[in-house]
Amino acid sequence: MYLCYDEAVQVGLNAYRTLEYAGSCRSAFRVASREFKGYMEDISLPYSPELSRRWVNDSKEHWNHHKLKSSRKAMSVLADIIEHSCVTTSLQTKIERTPPYTQLPSWSRTFVDSYLATLPCSYGTSCLTQIRNACSRFFLFLEFTGINQPNEITHDLVKSFFIKDIHMSSKSKDRYNNEISHCLMYMADQGLIPKTVGLALNKFVIPDLIIVAELPESECHGFSRFFNTVEKDISRSMADYDAASKQLTDIHKNRNYSSTIRNVTSQATRDFRVFMEANLFAYSNDLALEWLEFQRVKWSRAKYLGFRRVLLSIHEILCTGTLSTRCFSTHEPKYSLPGWGDDLLSQYLREREREGCADSTLDMIHSSCSRFLVFLDNRSIVSEMGITPVVIKDFQVQDKHSTVEGKNAYAIKIRGFLRFLARKGLVPETLELALSTEMAPHTSIVTTLSDKQIDAIYTFRQNVDRPIELRNSAIIMLGLRMGLRASDIANLKLTDISWKESSISFIQQKTGVHLTLPLPVDVGNSLYRYLCVGRPQSNSHQIFVHHRAPYCRFGRFNFGRLLQASVTSQCESVAIHGFHVTRKTFASKLLATGNPVTTIAAALGHVGVDSVDEYLATNEDQMRLCALGLKGIGYSGGFSL
Fold first, then answer.
1. Whole-prediction pTM value?
2. Spatial distance between the Cα atoms of 433 and 421, rounded to a whole number of angstroms
């Protein structure tokens, strides 16, 4: 039942009197009600809460703060009475209106006074009053929950306060919690409570704070193995964790990481530290991974990966004393290998590593042989003795690849593994012959950059001005004008350049052969401009580095992408498949200008000259001279010409 306006005003006045509000409050309510009634009569509209809010908003430019506040309060009381026929929540009892500070017991009141005394004298009276009210609000909550000593304040108690403490707005709640958090940190400095108790009141920490004891049984079983740790072990592990966190922060600072990454590091180390101390867990990497997995469903992918990187970095620092890993893989192992096969494959990989195989080669060997071992395991073969020619043939029939060349490449790696087993006397020496080759060797016409694409590269080089573009231009010119492989460009060091002799000297990664090449003027200019203007300060010895922290070596796997981008930025072009096309273009241009095969092989760093043969077909003018006429050759057959 809704009351009419005049009845509601009278009910409000009676409520103010019954609840023992001051006369000034009753007077302010009476004045505001009368003025609003006059406003309704002037515009000939009936009462509505929306109309009262519009009246207050339209008038606030002409009112002082006290009148605005009292009128807004009067309208909320009227709306409450008109809707419910009585006062419900719009007015408080005298006890509820009593400042929290006056309700505090002596121990907490004394502590609040001592905390306020430590604040700077620049704080005004109103600011100190607000801080006193905020802290008193928290200590009054402690009193209601039966807490009468600082050492009884726990993380879950702080979390409970955060949830139950209601405010008119989120801004007000944040302001109060910030003041309480400062007070708790003061208590931590006095040694009265753990430091992380004060951190727990942070609105960014609270949502991620897990109190394992409060979780349902179905959710807490993953943490059960971390309970019952001796207190001294907890303290020692916490000290190690704090030291590693500090070291990680220093590493990021020294390597000039962005503020975003450093903020994520601070948040991750703080939140996990609060979690450990709230549940009395000792630090371990297994606990960190369990915590991350538990939070994964609640977090965004970016937050999960950021926190995961931080905690894995701390684990590496604790294990090795430094941080060298720049990318922690997020992929689960693709293959689950049987124990006997995993051991043999590990031995083979270690042997190939000692032989100097590149990481990419080792990865391909692992992938190829893992496919084979998983097939054997699915066939219930439990040792190398079960590998027979029939089994190998069956594997090859079902082993699917997108190209025949890919299948051949995998077969070569598996054949090498079988030879390794044969050398150990585990399988017959002829067993590798059961693994057939799918296709014969073939030679295809070399793909090179077109004249239009080369012109686009030179236009790109002429127009670059940003540091990253200067780097990309220098990389492309080294490939196009000197024929260097991407791996060799990525490994070039500052000491490999001799400006005095205008040359570059280096050891080729693929062949291990030392190579010295003259430095063309345009390549030298691009390099010099990048080193003087574009290259960021870095401790890396390599010429080309990333332009974001930690400014480490720029890997060759990015070269194809930047080549495509530089060409397409100047003209529409077909897709360029890989950076190696610059080396092929370089060799083809040398051949087309009449250079002898020995010169081309030397420029490419090849030991023999046979590798130049594949470039012959690119020289169309010379190839036309090789064509033979058909004069004198008779024709026979069933078709007449």
1. 0.61
2. 13
